[in-house]
Design a protein that fits this description.
The model has no long low-confidence stretch (mean pLDDT about 95). Strand 3, helix 2 and strand 4 form a beta-alpha-beta unit. The N and C termini lie far apart (about 35 Å). With about 110 residues, this protein is α/β, with parallel strands linked by helices. Helix 3 packs across helix 4.
């Protein structure tokens, strides 16, 4: 799994699969934030599948779908809240990790 650590509490990643979640839990992550809309690609797992697997491993899960290039301030606020609510280190993902990183950057800029 290709994780890019942006802070002590946040890493971003390309698409994760249900089979990746046990390893994330074992690595100490407490939550997952999915920034990818369902059905963006035919081979991606659904948010419901990922959420069920996350919960099975005791992880917090949040789905904040963002269309590429359309991240809003509202999305960034929801992202920041999800990271806070997770209670510990989080992996946020989308297709490549760019949307997740963009949302994080938006939360780092004073409004």
């Amino acid at each position: 799994m290709d994780l890019k650590h942006l802070s002590p509490n946040l890493a971003v990643s390309p698409q994760i699969r249900p089979a990746d979640i046990a390893g994330l839990a074992a690595a100490g992550f407490m939550g997952i934030v999915n920034n990818r809309p369902d059905d963006e690609a035919p081979d991606q797992p659904s948010s419901l599948e990922l959420e069920a697997e996350a919960k099975r491993h005791g992880l917090y899960y949040s789905h904040i779908p963002v269309v590429p290039g359309q991240a809003s301030e509202s999305d960034a606020r929801a992202f920041a809240a999800a990271v806070e609510e997770s209670g510990g280190p989080v992996v946020a993902f989308c297709r490549t990790g760019n949307r997740a990183e963009t949302l994080w950057k938006m939360t780092q800029t004073p409004s």
